Amino acid sequence: MLPWFQDRFPLYLAPMAGITDTTFRQLCKGYGADVMVSEFVSSEGIFRKNERTMEYLDFEESERPLGIQLFGGDPEHLAEAAKIVLDWKRPDFLDINFGCPVNKVVSKNGGSSILRDCPLLARIAGAIVKAVTPHPVTAKIRIGWSADTINATTTARILEDCGIQAVAVHGRTKEQGYSGEADWNVIAQVAEAVRIPVIGNGDIVTAHDVEHRKSTTRIAGIMIGRTAMQHPWVFREIRHYIDTGTHLAPPSLAEIWAHIRRHCAMEIARQKLQPRGLEAPGTAELHAMQSMRTQLMSYSRGMSGARQLREKFAHVASLAQLDDIAAENIAQHPSDSHLAAA
């Protein structure tokens, strides 16, 4: 069994393209997330040594245990990419993406498209496991392609037979995308059907949600995605509840802004380390703040004055501007003590 399951109910940060970079993972780790998974990385990009693809593989030692998630549709290329990643970065495990519903991934026979082709799924999983044994390989799936083709127990058994050591199950179909509700009945069925650890994923917002799913299914861990985008301190709240049975007080508005500023400052520092050639002073800060805008929009959800914040976040270009926005928001809402769950 993977060591992080032996004496703990691990909290995973879900891989999210454009969100879960090394900066965000470090923040979530600090709040109590146990296991990190990288943004998904194209096996073809690794196979061709694409420079931008290689940036997705970067991580800090403090993030461990960490897995690099690969996607693609060619078993041989995926196996070769897995060996390259293992040789270059030595992650704690490799993860295979069989769950992404985005059409540009699905159209290339990657992600959740493979759920419709169980023989191909088996060839991919088997090829990667064989290529990197004894290094552990895990996988992430959805419950099926559509409501009429839910096959998560079948795919999970195939993955187990191929040597996959844990499987994360998102409780939606490909056709659902991120709409509707996650079907935890299917997740529970998968946990009953296999001997390997099953990590449940979907609609986890509060510590109560974790406790309910933990007590009513045989899942071995929880994976949290969109909730962490909005308030990554959810990991701290969940771990505290699991360990003590009591709830932490929600963060104050000032604490939330301190977190937002820290995230931006960390991203600026990271951008300054990137080789960019001869550029004007301050360019790294501008690049960092522009790259942070989507994440800032997520942070604004549930905050008082969210609409005005989003308008300002769409144009924020420096840490000084962010400080001004924060000061104004705190002054306008002095009684706010927490960020409500979205």
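(the above was protein one; protein two follows)
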Amino acid sequence: MNAYRGAADPLDALGDATRRAIVEQLRGGERAVGDLAAGLPVSRPAVSQHLAVLRAAGLVAERPQGTRRYYRLDPAGLARLRDRLDAMWGAAARAPGLVAGRIGSPIDATPASVGAPVSPPAAAAGRPAAVTAAPPPAEAGGKARKKRKKKGGRR
């Protein structure tokens, strides 16, 4: 999939740091592509491509005026995104052992979990977590160099 096209899911569209920065800039109001590009480390055509993804996801709306295009946040698209996030938080709040925290987000409030490291779900279910061994360190100038010498290759 092309990184600039086809992201109709608003969460996918916001998965890119440049697109999140564009949305942050548009919080201040309508802006032209050139104005947006001036505050980003990418080219103007790249900003236009990112805006196309945000527009396909329903997060921004454009208004052409002469040769310029002005973009603004789309309130309807943002409302749909918020509804989706609220539904996700609602499902998380209904999960066993979770309660609403001080800022309204679900957190694990069991006394044993305070200050404890987060464990993977397998360990929480009573199964041992998978252990992965680190690969052995590469030998400095080891066998690969010796093979090259035998074949007459350069170092």
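Reviewer note on protein two: Confidence is low (pLDDT under 50) at residues 102-136.
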